[in-house]
Amino acid sequence: MRILMTLLVSLVSSAIALLVAALLLHPDFSLGFVSFPFAVIVFAVILVVTRALAESVVRRHAMVLASFAGLIGTFVALIICDALSGVGIAIHGFGTLILATIIVWLGMFLANILIARRMIERLFGGPRGSRRVDHRN
To answer: Is the pTM of this model over 0.85?
Structure first.
């Protein structure tokens, strides 16, 4: 169940972050309308793999750099998705790639926080640590 929830959060946050990047960086960053779901899935899978590899490499060299693993993974995932012409992500220029990386990473970070908070509230009946009080006495 936890793996499924993690996958769902990753897909939703990837979709939101890619849309935000496309809106902010248009026309230099574009998403194909029809291929958007495929682009999100490919991006999310590549991101999971590259992020895990980046975390592994970074962990060996410095714990301080471990927080940048998501940023590195996003950068690499965007490069690969741009190179795979059938995915539907097109990035024009190195500056756009850098901005897209920051926007997508930050968007996913914020979306993950918001989505995780909502899921916790739904699963456990409220924000962490809060208890529902029955006032029917």
So the answer is: no
